[in-house]
Amino acid sequence: DAGVIQSPRHEVTEMGQEVTLRCKPISGHNSLFWYRQTMMRGLELLIYFNNNVPIDDSGMPEDRFSAKMPNASFSTLKIQPSEPRDSAVYFCASSHNRGGSPLHFGNGTRLTVT
Amino acid sequence: AQKVTQAQTEISVVEKEDVTLDCVYETRDTTYYLFWYKQPPSGELVFLIRRNSFDEQNEISGRYSWNFQKSTSSFNFTITASQVVDSAVYFCALSPPRVATDSWGKLQFGAGTQVVVTP
């Protein structure tokens, strides 16, 4: 069975450029999550969706970040314009929409903004 | 507010030794879920176990075992007879119950404990 698929695995970009991270959740999962991992702040929830609808985006650091889920099998996280402090590993995760369902994470996208 | 504390930053052991990872949590919810995840050097996050707050039975899975004690708000993880492949960062996480659509799914992760197993 395919797990959560994220692309690209690595992204290096210059400050000011737009970055788009992509995620394909596990088929049948109706909740999707974007997390960011840094040494300083650990794992932080940025936003999550239930049935393609954003439920809580309070973790999105600022207006430069946006996320969409146009259908059940695809989501994007966009940063525009990017800044060096956005450098981190970004994880997408999916799960069933019921209490206690474990999150299944993708392999992450390592973003470096120079 | 929810909080997960993993006080041990790094634990180094020699292969075949046992290692116990501590996890202490804080929550006002009467029901909740606890999780452990493993992050090997390759970087992915691997789900290991989920525990419902109503279920205080300890669990064993191969060389892994978990000790959940609601009275002390702890959910400790033991690796018995450690192996080099156990080297990873281990995260404890807490999730509220699905009572409101705006709170469920908000896994609160601890800072993680790095386990280093040397041959």
**What structural class should be given to the helix and strand makeup of chain A?**
mainly beta
Low-pLDDT residue spans of chain A = none
Given the helix and strand composition of chain B, which structural class is it? mainly beta
Low-confidence stretches of chain B: none
What does the largest sheet of chain A look like? Answer: 7 strands, mixed
The most extensive interface, with participating residues per chain, is: A-B, 24 and 25 residues
The oligomerization state is: heterodimer
Give the N-terminus to C-terminus distance of chain A in angstroms.
36 Å
Query: For the CA atoms, what is the radius of gyration of chain A?
Result: 13 Å
Contiguous helical run count of chain A: 0
Mean pLDDT of chain A: 94
Write the element-wise H/E pattern of chain A from the N-terminal end onward.
EEEEEEEEEEE
* Tally of alpha and pi helices of chain B: 0
Helix-strand topology string of chain B? EEEEEEEEEEEE
Sheet-strand content of chain B, in percent, reads: over 45%
> What is the number of strand segments of chain B?
12
Q: Give the percentage of residues in beta strands of chain A.
A: over 45%
Query: What radius of gyration of chain B results from the CA coordinates?
Result: 14 Å
Main beta-sheet annotation of chain B: 6 strands, mixed
Q: Indicate the percent of residues in helices of chain A.
A: under 10%
Describe this structure in words.
- Chain A is mostly beta strands and about 110 residues long.
- Helix content of chain A is about 0%, strand content about 55%.
- Chain A has strands spanning about 5, 10-15, 20-25, 30-40, 40-50, 55, 65-70, 75-80, 90-95, 105, 110-114.
- In chain A, the strands form two sheets. In chain A, strands 2, 4, 5, 6, 9, 10 and 11 form a seven-stranded mixed β-sheet that branches. Chain A has a four-stranded antiparallel β-sheet with strand order 1-3-8-7, with no helix packed on it.
- The termini of chain A are far apart.
- The mean pLDDT of chain A is about 95.
- With about 120 residues, chain B is mostly beta strands.
- In chain B, strands 2, 5, 6, 10, 11 and 12 form a six-stranded mixed β-sheet that branches. In chain B, strands 3-9-8-7 form a four-stranded antiparallel β-sheet, with no helix packed on it. Chain B has a two-stranded antiparallel ribbon with strand order 1-4.
- In chain B, strand 8 and strand 9 form a beta hairpin.
- The mean pLDDT of chain B is about 90.
- Chains A and B meet through strand 5, strand 9 and strand 10 of A and strand 5 and strand 6 of B.
